Amino acid sequence: NAAASAVTLAATAGAWQGKVITADLAKETVGKPSKVFQATVGTWVVAQDGPDKVMKIDGGIWKAAQTNEAKMLIENARRLYGTNNEELMDNAKQFATFPVAVLTGYDGFSNGTISVKFKTVSGESDRASGILFNVKPNGDWLSIRYNDTENNVALWEFHNGIRRNVKFNRDKKFMLDPDCKRPVLGTCGGWHELKLTVAGADLKAWLDGDLAMEYTLGTEPGPGRNGTPPNEDLFPKNNAVLRPPVMGRIGLWAKTDSTSLFKDFTWTPAK
Fold first, then answer.
1. Strand partners, 205
2. Could you report the per-residue pLDDT of 59-87, keeping only the tens digit for each?
3. What is the pLDDT of residues 141-157, one digit of tens each?
4. Can you give the three-state secondary structure of the chain, one letter per residue?
C-alpha cells in the first residue's frame, strides 16, 4: 500500500540519492486521511482535483474546532512520536495554530531538494501553503511558505512552543493569481510550485522557478523591530533547529484557517 511504499523508500534511501522521489497518492482514498502523510495538526484529507488525488488542508474545520486543537495535536503526535515526549505535549497549545502533515517512513532528510505544487482555495485569516522540514523529535521545525494574503515567501522556525520569523523576502511581491477576486477565491486560482534546496547550511527557496529567498543556517540574528534586541531563541546556540546540518522529517505546512491543495510532493536526497 501507499504507506508501505513510503517505508520502502526510506529503507532504501542510499539507493535513491540524487534521484527524484515522489509521494504517491494514487492508492489513497478520497475523503479519508492519508497513509502517506501523517496529519499531526489540523484536518488533512485526500481530495480529488481533476485527474489528480491531492492533499487538502481544510482550514474551515480547523476554525470550527479551535477549542479542541490541543487535544487533537496530542492524540496525533503520540501516534507519530510515541507517548513519552513530554516537551512536545507541553508545546501542544501553541503548536496547534499551524497545521502540519509529516511524510511517513522518511525521517532523515538532509541535503537535497524538496518541492511541492500548491493551490490556494480559501481562508479568512490566512491563505498560507508551505514545505515543512528539519522536524525534530520534540516537534520543533522549519518551514518555507508562501502567503497569499501578503504575497511573500518567508522562512519560519518553531522552538519552545513559539513560532518566529527568521527571514522574509523583501525585494519582491509575488502576485500569483492577480485575476482572482477575493469573493470568488478558489474558482480561478491555479497551481504553483514551491521548492526548497538545502546544501549544508545554505537554504534557497524558489517560487514558480524564481529565486525567492536565500538564508544560511547558523547566522546570528540582527536587531528586532524598532532596533530591539533579538529574541534569545533566534540565536543558533540556543536553538538546534537553526543550526546546521538540516536533519529531520519533512512534510506539508499551513496556517490557521487556510484551505489549500497540495500535489507532486517530491524530494531528492543529494548525491
1. 196, 213
2. 877 555 555 555 555 556 556 655 555 45
3. 999 999 988 889 999 99
4. CHHHHHHHHHHCHHHHCCCCEECCCCCCCCCCCCCCEEEEECCEEEEEECCEEEEEECHHHHHHCHHHHHHHHHHHHHHHHCCCCHHHHHCHHHHCCCCEEEECCCCCECCEEEEEEEEEEECCCCCEEEEEEEECCCCCEEEEEEECCCCEEEEEEEECCEEEEEEECCCCCCCCCCCCCHHHCCCCCCCEEEEEEEECCEEEEEECCEEEEEEECCCCCCCCHHHCCCCHHHCHHHCHHHCCCCCEEEEEEECCCCEEEEEEEEEEECC
CA 70, CA 41: separation in Å to the nearest integer? 9
Alpha-carbon distance 156 to 130, whole Å? 10
